[in-house]
Design brief:
Blueprint lengths: L17 H9 L5 E2 L4 E7 L8 E9 L5 E7 L11 E6 L9 E7 L14 E2 L6 E5 L7 E6 L5 E7 L12 E2 L5 E5 L6 E2 L4 E2 L2 E6 L9 E7 L13 E3 L5 E5 L9 E6 L9 E7 L9 E2 L6 E2 L5 E5 L1 E2 L6 E8 L2 E9 L14 E2 L5 E5 L24 E6 L9 E7 L12 E3 L2 E6 L12 E6 L1
Parallel strand pairs: 1-30
Antiparallel strand pairs: 2-33, 3-4, 4-5, 5-6, 7-8, 8-9, 9-10, 11-12, 12-15, 13-14, 15-16, 17-18, 18-19, 19-20, 21-24, 22-23, 23-25, 25-26, 27-28, 28-29, 29-30, 31-32, 32-33
């Protein structure tokens, strides 16, 4: 069986052993399908030179319920080439109305950047937007968009010697500093010297308006037990420590979860510690190749996904809990590759009741004859799912997976996290190109 060729912006590991495929086929009945879930496409990215093409990252929302994101391509043409946009979706003024798209900025492909990836960070007070993009130099930029008519872009920092552009998204601390990762940056090389191993950086705003932002490299990955390719970005705890994942590396080369602790005196070197290594062994419940960002619960436990291996070879959802200075891993769900989904590649999100929501790039409808099935279509792996994991009612019980939506056309393969607003979920599907149906990507809503 073949993997589909698509423009999904995730890194998939090598094809699984044949045994994994047959196990998955035998397990297709393992998911619970939710009743009365309604999925609606609220926007199709279909005009390359106006509204953008191939949404990337995820969605964020402001206080009015407007949504913001980026596309890798599209926008205004510059000499016949388009370089991506930052957009806004305004919610309908009346029930059942249409969402309205507004392109806030079209990248020109020069010093202002190009091909933004990783979504945006929204400053709720000032209404400003922050993000990262590639650049003409090849090293990328961090940018700011300021509201107005029109919106204006300012380049906060141009990366000049980091080896690759930042694409894991940005977070901020209480002082307005920005943090992110460069998966192929840093001072060490990996994969036989073909790529750099990656780095975590901090951008500090100027002390006075009009000043210069400064970069501090917090950690350079070396490609050993510390891992390499930090594709997921980082999250911040209350003490100012950063947490993230590396897609590769670690003792078993299945990726890692790491922590960066700031210096106690406020200056000096940050300390990196590997808090978990994935083993990447087929048939083990342990997964490998984490690519989505991590998520905290209220007690400080970490939640995430691996997009391959695990018990059935299709990834899993894991939890890391700190007890007595030792991080302990538990598994919340093992994907079978059938109706419950396959290959999760995005961060998870909590609701107020402690349930988790996420997406799988593949899986779902795998045993019929449509384009996304093991039948006569050309999909073979399914077009993906949106799922919910409900915590156990008693301590020590099992989490329960419910499939909220199964994608059955090439307007599927969701590789970005969902956004939860009230009881509604919002998400993105990437561009996909086939001989019969080009799909430039969609924004969707699921009502629960």
């Amino acid at each position: 069986m073949k993997r589909r060729e698509s423009s999904i912006s995730i890194s998939l590991p090598p094809a699984l052993p044949v045994a994994a495929v047959w196990i998955a086929l035998m397990m297709v009945g393992g998911a619970t399908l939710a009743a009365a879930q309604t999925e609606t496409v609220i926007h199709r990215f279909q005009n390359q030179y106006r509204g953008g093409l191939n949404p990337s990252g995820g969605l964020v929302a402001d206080r009015t319920g407007a949504l913001y994101g980026t596309t890798l391509y599209g926008g205004k043409s510059v000499l016949g080439v388009s370089y991506g946009v930052v957009y806004q979706f305004s919610p309908p003024s009346t029930g059942g109305g249409a969402w309205q798209e507004n392109v806030l900025y079209s990248f020109k492909g020069g010093a202002d950047g190009k091909n933004p990836f990783g979504g945006v960070l929204l400053d709720a007070k000032a209404g400003k937007i922050y993000g990262t993009a590639g650049s003409l130099s090849g090293y990328g930029i961090a940018y700011q968009l300021t509201p107005g008519t029109p919106w204006t872009e300012s380049v906060l920092y141009t990366f000049s010697a980091d080896g690759g552009f930042p694409n894991g998204g940005l977070i901020s601390d209480a002082n307005g500093a920005l943090y992110g990762t460069i998966p192929n940056g840093g001072g060490f090389t990996c994969n036989g010297g073909n790529v750099r191993c990656g780095e975590v950086y901090k951008l500090t705003p100027p002390s006075a308006p009009g000043g210069t932002w400064t970069e501090q490299v917090l950690y350079n990955f070396q490609g050993g037990n510390d891992g390499w390719d930090p594709s997921s970005g980082v999250i911040l705890d209350k003490a100012g420590a950063l947490y993230g994942t590396t897609f590769y590396g670690g003792p078993n080369n299945g990726g890692t979860v790491y922590k960066l602790t700031p210096p106690s005196g406020g200056s000096g070197a940050w300390t990196e510690s590997m808090i978990h290594a994935f083993n990447g062994a087929f048939g083990s419940p342990e997964g490998a190749y984490p690519i989505g960002a991590l998520t905290f619960d209220n007690a400080g436990a970490l939640y995430g996904t691996t997009n391959n291996y695990g018990q059935y070879g299709w990834g899993n959802v894991f939890k890391l809990t700190l007890n007595g200075g030792v991080w302990t891993e538990t598994f919340l769900h093992q994907f079978t590759g059938g109706s419950d989904g396959a290959v999760p590649a995005a961060a998870l999100v909590f609701d107020s009741a402690g349930a988790l929501y996420g997406t799988t790039v593949y899986g779902g409808d795998v045993n019929s004859n449509d384009a996304c099935s093991y039948g006569q279509g050309d999909g073979y792996y399914g077009c993906g799912t949106v799922f919910k994991l409900t915590p156990p009612s008693t301590q020590g019980g099992s989490w329960t997976e419910t499939v909220l939506h199964t994608f059955t056309t090439f307007e599927g393969f969701p590789g970005a996290p969902v956004l939860l607003l009230g009881k509604d979920l919002f998400g993105l599907t990437p561009a996909y190109s086939s001989d019969t149906m080009p799909a430039p990507g969609t924004a969707f809503q699921i009502k629960q």
